[in-house]
Design goal:
The complex is a heterodimer of chains A (401) and B (339). By secondary structure, chain A is an alpha+beta fold. Chain A is built from 13 helices and 8 strands. Chain A starts with 8 loop residues before the first helix and ends in a 5-residue tail after the last helix. Chain B is of the alpha/beta class and 339 residues long. The radius of gyration of chain B is 21 Å and the shape is globular. Classes of the chains: A alpha+beta (401), B alpha/beta (339).
Chain lengths: 401, 339
């Protein structure tokens, strides 16, 4: 097709002006009209559902509203991160449930990432045995339904001897069907303060790191970071702990009555759920990591080698940043999966948010409110994970200028 | 997971209206008649109450309770469909209309009538919560259970009583809360918990089903709560409520009057006015409830009176009649007059 030249008089003429006319022939008017109609229909549909639900609830004499949250729950909860007794409110019971879900999801996501990365790299190993073991692990674990795996782990942990015949592999660590008992320090204020000091130190080290990079850019000399790191991460917390009287009492588990008292506990329910989730999710993460590493062209390794970087530097500075770009988006899905799959806890008696909300529904009869709470909790957790991972993904994305 | 499905079913049932149906006389009864059978919510398997036998036929006191309702409505005790429900999904199942009634070891409490929209139609078993431990544990009383790990089903009054009892006696415990009854019992047998707590009847049933291993388990003497168990219906359907309530009373009255499934045909010619009214020879009470006048005759003929039902289902487990005897024999079973 011949392009009109700049001198073409047709180009000099202004395009016909489209005045706004409230006419059916105007495509904009039509588009706006249909959008209003559809929005209105959706709105009316929602209103109709809500109105009917409320009317039916009233007719069936089922209580509504969230007032039940302030009532005494009365339900016992096996493990809790915050102090809880059955005399507390439903709100507190549900909070315990949310924390239990977060606990298993966060610990699970971290450990599954570590295990998944190791297995993913192992599957690429040049060692035949290591590669095949990793392959078998991935293929078996990801093909079995998670619920089955959880029941398997739970049955296995229940098969341990009772507390009076507990296995004692070393020190004050005991394995029994009541869980894994281990010595734990008695937590006091000084420990919390030391932990806080450590976090402050961590932030300071990060800030110094940035400062030193800027200095290197300006002067070409990079100051040493590690003496500062030791000072801030080790000496500062230790100093705080010492200044507050250096309390240190080990709380050892001791068999008394039916069970061990004192010490830290990993209950069979939590352990079974955690093992199951980690092993299952790690199989998927391994494949994601493998795919990510394979996605980086072999030439990148060779080019990095040609620059004189060591093998470790090649991986850390050249290959991994590029692999992460492929790894992070599917990894986000796995983190979401681990959070949602943790609701299978119901089957093995770990009291997560679903378990406690279900019981709440049963005791109060307020199913709609209970389900709404469960949905809200999962939606909040999932959206938070998504937002964080999207931020991280944007940070590591290829900077195109 | 099933709970989630049932709860969503409930949400849908509530969101999509059956408004017209509610306006009529007895939607539940109309639904049952149109369907041709009663849909009855039972347990997932508690021997003596509701448990399928080797032929898949549901047996037990509660299962027979469902049959009395079918006998009263259709004159045929077999027109029942049994729906197994867990402790957690039983209430959504009833609220959503998935079942017509629950005959499912359910404890009558104020909260359940006041906020769940239910009505208890009677008491077919006066129960109480108890503790079961392994004999090897060497515990003789519930007061010695400080620090114990306790297996309990969630969503039950049992769970709440347990917390109350330990709090009252200033003892601590660790709950292991599993919804599935089989999983829960497996956890107790495996030794995950020291104590299994439930209604005494359920514990007796558990022990009974252990066969030769029954000797390994002992029930502690303390009964820590009142657990009146009975059938539950939705509020607002008085006609159906009356049928369920009086089907049970008819059996109790029959026991009191000496009417059994064996002699009910001869009793039709009895001169006793009470028996005549019960069996529908006089009075016409059946029609007043929208049923056949022979409703109670059908119940007694096909299911039996309360004592027969008890002997068939509960006696084999070795549970004495106790407070579940007739009021004339020192128990609590008492039917208002049928007149």
């Amino acid at each position: 097709m011949q392009r009109p030249t700049a001198a073409d008089p047709r180009d000099l003429r202004a395009p016909p002006r489209r005045g706004f006319a409230l006419s059916w022939r105007d495509p904009t008017v039509r588009a706006v009209f249909w959008q209003i109609v559809i929005l209105g229909l959706v709105g009316a549909g929602i209103w109709w559902l809500v109105d009917n639900t409320m009317r039916n609830l009233e007719m069936r004499k089922i209580a509504t509203g969230f007032r039940f949250l302030e009532r005494e729950a009365g339900l016992p909860i096996g493990e809790s991160l915050i102090p809880y007794s059955p005399a507390d409110t439903y709100f507190r019971a549900l909070t315990v449930g949310v924390l239990n879900t977060l606990r298993v999801a966060i610990v699970g996501a971290i450990l599954a990432t570590v295990l998944g990365t190791v297995v993913g790299i192992a599957r690429l190993s040049k060692n035949w045995l290591v590669a095949k073991c990793a392959a078998v692990y991935v293929e078996v674990l990801r093909d079995l339904p998670l619920l089955l795996q959880l029941l398997f782990w739970y049955a296995l942990l229940q098969g341990l001897p009772g507390p009076r015949q507990a296995l004692n592999p070393f020190g004050s660590v005991y394995l029994s069907n009541r869980g894994i008992k281990f010595p734990w320090i008695e937590w006091q204020e000084a420990h919390s303060a030391a932990l806080l000091a450590f976090v402050v130190g961590l932030i300071a080290v990060w800030g110094l790191g940035r400062l030193f990079v800027a200095r290197q850019m300006a002067t070409g000399v990079r100051p040493r970071l590690w003496p500062w790191a030791i000072l801030l991460l080790v000496a500062l917390p230790a100093g705080v702990w010492w200044a507050m009287g250096a309390p240190f009492t080990v709380d050892r588990p001791v068999l008394r009555g039916f069970n061990f008292r004192g010490g830290g506990t990993l209950t069979p329910e939590f352990a079974a759920l955690l093992f199951g989730l980690i092993l299952y999710t790690a199989a998927f993460i391994a494949e994601i990591v493998r795919a990510g590493i394979l996605a980086v062209h072999q030439g990148q390794w060779e080019a990095a080698g040609a620059l004189g970087l060591t093998r470790g530097q090649q991986l850390r500075l050249v290959v991994l940043p590029q692999a992460l770009r492929v790894i992070v988006p599917p990894l986000t899905s796995q983190y979401l999966n681990i959070t949602k799959n943790s609701s299978l806890a119901v089957a093995i008696g770990y009291q997560d948010i679903v378990s406690i909300a279900n019981t709440t529904i049963n005791q109060t009869g307020q199913a709609i409110e209970g389900i709404a709470i469960i949905m809200l909790v999962y939606l909040t957790i999932s959206l938070t994970i998504s937002l964080f991972m999207n931020w991280f993904n944007a940070r590591i994305a290829l900077k195109e200028r | 997971m099933h709970t989630a499905i049932r709860i969503s079913a409930l949400a849908f049932a509530l969101a999509f209206p059956a408004v017209e149906a509610l306006a009529q006389q007895s939607p539940t009864l109309d639904g049952i008649r149109a369907r041709g059978h009663v849909v009855c919510g039972v347990t997932t398997g508690v021997a003596g109450f509701s448990n399928p036998d080797s032929q898949g036929i549901w047996r037990g006191l509660d299962a027979d309770g469902c049959r009395t309702v079918a006998a009263a409505i259709f004159g045929d005790a077999n027109r029942v469909r049994f729906v197994p429900t867990t402790s957690q999904n039983r209430f959504p199942a009833l609220q959503s209309g998935e079942v017509d009634l629950l005959y499912r070891n359910t404890t009558w409490t104020l909260g359940r009538e006041a906020s769940l929209g239910f009505q208890f139609a009677g008491i077919n078993f006066y129960d109480g919560q108890a503790f079961m431990v392994k004999r090897t544990l060497g515990v003789k009383s519930a007061k010695e259970l400080d620090g114990a790990t306790v297996c309990v089903q969630p969503g039950t009054t049992t769970e709440l009583n347990l917390a109350d009892y330990f709090r009252t006696n200033r003892m601590t415990f660790r709950p292991v809360v599993i919804e599935n009854l089989e999983e829960l019992r497996a956890a107790f047998i495996a030794g995950r918990c020291d104590v299994y707590t439930s209604d005494a009847s359920v514990l007796a049933s558990f022990r009974f089903t252990q066969g030769p291993n029954a000797e390994l388990y002992v029930m502690l003497p303390e009964i820590i709560s009142k657990e009146p168990l009975g059938p539950v219906v939705r509020k607002g359907d008085q006609r159906f409520f009356d049928i369920v309530r009086w089907a049970l009373f008819a059996q109790i009255a029959a026991e009191e009057l000496g009417v059994t499934s064996a002699n009910v045909d001869q009793m039709l010619t009895s001169q006793s006015p009470e028996i005549q009214r019960l069996l529908g020879v006089t009075g016409g009470f059946g029609q007043m409830m929208g049923l056949d006048n022979r409703w109670a005759y059908n119940i007694i003929k096909q299911v039996g009176n309360f004592a027969e039902m008890w002997e068939r289902n509960i006696t084999p487990m070795g549970v004495p009649r106790g407070i579940n005897a007739l009021w004339t024999q020192g128990g609590l079973m008492y039917a208002p007059p049928i007149r």
